Amino acid sequence: MLTDDERTAFLQSIARVRQRAAQALRQAQGADGPDGAVAFIAQLHRGLDTVAEQARATGPQPACQAGCAHCCHLRVEATEPEVFHIAQYLRAQPAEALADALSALQRHVATAALNPTNPARQACSFLVDDRCSIYSHRPAACRKAHSLSAQHCAEQSPTIPQNLRLLVDAEALMAGTALAYRDQPLPASAHELNAAVLAALKAPTAQARWYQGDAAALMPKDAQN
User: Fold this and answer.
1) Can you say how many angstroms the Cα of residue 81 is from the centroid of all Cα atoms in its chain?
2) Could you read off the pLDDT of 99-158 as tens digits, one per residue?
3) d(CA 168, CA 9)
4) If exposure means fewest CB atoms within 10 Å of the residue's CB, which of 11, 78, 123, 136 is most exposed?
5) pLDDT at 138
6) How many angstroms separate the CA atoms of 54 and 27, rounded?
7) Can you list the alpha helix ranges (DSSP code H) found in the chain?
8) What percentage of the chain exceeds 90 in pLDDT?
9) CA distances for 13 relative to 17, 23, 51, 177, angstroms
10) Cα torsion for 98, 103, 107, 112, to the nearest 10°?
11) CB within 8 Å of 92: residues ≥ 6 apart
């Protein structure tokens, strides 16, 4: 829980990020259009990585390490530019790797659809041998996620001890960047990662529709009717 002063500082931080990100995003669009708008999301990811590094240097040490994949079995959300960023990365992979990713995504979405009100806890489609196969392009939610206790994660505890400073700084970066996109105006809302990436891969025109301001670009056609 934040104090009033901390909340004021948090909102001011969001405003600063929004202003700076909006200017940089306009420049990225001016240079490369929709591809520039998508590529710009990497600046948010680099900022989050820096925040995480600073937190490790000055605060309590996270228990997270390579091969620890408890959080990779939870629901993950990503914004439109993050989804298209991942889709572009996957399309650039060898045909066999792309086909494997598509199959994994389809299985994940099909399993989730069996019980939409209480979806089964299942591994992320991009988790391969307990490693993230899109680690360089993973969304902000994954970069922010951390735990100070591996035991709490293993036990699926309802509360996970975390570094509050890291969370606050990361949330400010994420919120400010999302607002900067919306100021363009470009949709930047939360979507379930697996379903959204599958939709982006199956609809070649989705990115163009998003760049035109279509908030339903990542929605299945039957859900739009």
Assistant:
1) 9
2) 999 999 999 999 999 988 888 789 999 999 999 999 999 999 999 999 999 999 999 999
3) 10
4) 136
5) 98
6) 28
7) 4-39, 41-58, 80-91, 95-113, 140-144, 150-154, 164-182, 193-202, 206-211, 221-224
8) 91
9) 6, 16, 14, 11
10) 30
11) none
Cα angle: 189, vertex 191, 195; to 5 degrees? 150
| Type of residue at 205 | T
Measuring CA to CA, which residue among 118, 77, 94 is closest to residue 218? 77
What the block records as the tokens of 52 is: 């995480």
pLDDT tens for each residue of 173-185: 999 999 999 999 9
Q: What is the token pair recorded at 159?
A: 């509360």
Nearby residues of 31 by Cβ (< 8 Å), 6 or more positions away: none
Amino acid letter at 53? E
Please state the pTM of the whole predicted model. Answer: 0.94
Question: Would the pLDDT of 1 be above 90?
Answer: no
How many Cβ atoms are within 10 Å of 104's Cβ, its own excluded? 19
What value does the mean pLDDT of the chain take?
95
CB 37 within 8 A of CB 82: no
pLDDT at 221: 60
Cβ-based neighbour number of residue 91 at 10 Å: 12
